Amino acid sequence: MRCLPAINCVFFLLLAAWFAGMPLRAHAATGEQVRLNADNISYDEKTATVTATGNVEIKQGERILIADRVELNEITNTATAQGNVTLLEPDGNVIFADYVRLSDELRDGILKNLKIRMTDDSRLAANGARRSGGYLTEMSKGVFS
């Protein structure tokens, strides 16, 4: 596994914080290293973008993000993950999506084809989810069982 500077691993922290509804500072304060493993990792200096493709796995502590592709843009402060996105939470919840984009220090984000399997075997699914202003999360065509 390759350890990247924390600024390049902002996506993982943003995604975890976004779902938990917590500020990024709360997650960053743990001091745990963030590790990134992928078939290919590149950095474009012109666009200040880190791109990881193929079997991407980002891990911090017990939290693991898996995706086909992850991009982190330091200029626009946006992060995207696409293709078989899975977030394994320490509490046992598992979050799935086809596409995730986060911006504006996690205040805004969208997810496509969201599914959550909770530790009590309940499930939540939605065609999409959107977070606005850091506090409001809306889901379209959501189902809970």
Description of the molecule:
Strands 1, 2, 3, 4, 5, 6, 7, 8, 9, 10 and 11 form an eleven-stranded antiparallel beta sheet that branches. The protein has helices spanning 10-20, 24-28, and strands spanning 2-3, 34-37, 40-44, 49-60, 63-73, 78-88, 94-103, 108-117, 123-132, 136-140, 143-144. The relative contact order is 0.15. The protein has two helices and eleven strands; from the N terminus they run E-H-H-E-E-E-E-E-E-E-E-E-E. The chain is mainly β and 145 residues long. The protein is globular, with a radius of gyration of 14 Å.
Assembly type? single chain
Could you give the order of the helices and strands? EHHEEEEEEEEEE
Strand content: over 45%
Q: Mean pLDDT, nearest integer?
A: 78
The number of E-state strands comes to: 11
Uncertain runs are 1-14, 16-29
Our Rg estimate from Cα atoms comes to 14 Å
